[in-house]
Amino acid sequence: MTIRADETRMAERTSTLEDLNDRSREVFRRVVEGYLDTGEPVGSRSLTRVMNEKVSAATIRNVMQDLEFMGLLGSPHVSAGRVPTQQGLRMFVDGLLEVGDLDATEREKIDATIGNGGDVGTMMDRIGSALSLATHGASLVLTPKHEAPIKHIEFVSLGPERALVVLVTADGHVENRLFTPPPGQTPSSMREAANFLNAVLEGKTLSEARSAVSREIDARRQQIDGLARALVESGVAVWEDEGDFHERLIVRGRANLLDSQEEDLDRIRVLFDDLERKRDIAEFLELTEDGDGVRIFIGSENKLFSLSGSSLVVSPYMNADRKIIGAVGVIGPTRLNYGRIVPIVDYTAQLVGRMLTDRR
């Protein structure tokens, strides 16, 4: 399993870790682990019971103060224990986090929840639900574009201002879209438009369609009727909106995140509003485009989710040609159990890649 991190950032965090002596490193690690486990500040007295070295609470408080001065720990209240800062969490994840393999029981649960059968969209919905259930967080699944070559296109009139465009791909995928055709369409102009598109687009993917149609219309402007030309342009444009042929961001388990961060409900709602509007789909995929492996973003490190103060664990999945075509991830509070979440996200991403490859 690979966990990717920026090399410069890693060098900086490793240098800081190397500056800590064994006692300071253990205090830091136990404070972070205690906070991730309970969500509560960790006090010096509780650490005296678990430290490998027998030291007094006063000694541990002095170490905590040093770590706080370094920016690795913080105090929610004057008399409270310590919690890791965002910088401290980052250093812990990059240098001290222990990530094991996914155990067989959890692997079987994910496999069983995902199940078999159904189209890609249905499969991705199940994967989102399984990932949310396994991690107790909000899951994100960025589905791939449907890039099969086009086999046939047809226009069907449903009335003066309603029409249906039907697209069939070479792999048998069929999609229907309702749209408003340009005024004045006739059955003959619809047939002419469909014949033109079928001649131009057969064997091309949808992402190649618009440029191919534009070139052909320019070259044959005198041959194709104006009404049919307008219909061709609107019929192709309808697939530029959201749909199965374009990336779709599936969000599952919103309630898990709302329950875990009750003090930040307004910010969490803003996050989900942004996701619903699909503003940041391209940016979500960009998070994973540097290569294979899991990436961890904590709080404000990633502008996509910084407003909610959440952490994101994300991994790309690839097709048979090792090309990144989508991503899966989990959003949760910054006190995520990273050691447990990382292998789940990693396994799910690999599983999605294999399942999509098997469908080819």
TrEMBL record:
Gene3D superfamilies found in the cross-reference section: 3.30.450.40, Heat-inducible transcription repressor hrca homolog, domain 3, Winged helix-like DNA-binding domain superfamily/Winged helix DNA-binding domain
InterPro entries registered for this protein in UniProt: GAF-like_dom_sf, HrcA, HrcA_C, WH-like_DNA-bd_sf, WH_DNA-bd_sf, WHTH_transcript_rep_HrcA_IDD
UniProt keyword list: Repressor, Stress response, Transcription, Transcription regulation
Residue intervals of the Heat-inducible transcription repressor HrcA C-terminal domain: 123-342
GO biological process: negative regulation of DNA-templated transcription
Chain ranges passing through the membrane: none
MF terms in GO: DNA binding
Physiological role: Negative regulator of class I heat shock genes (grpE-dnaK-dnaJ and groELS operons). Prevents heat-shock induction of these operons.
Family membership noted in the UniProt record: Belongs to the HrcA family.
Name the UniProt record assigns to this protein: Heat-inducible transcription repressor HrcA
GN (gene name): hrcA
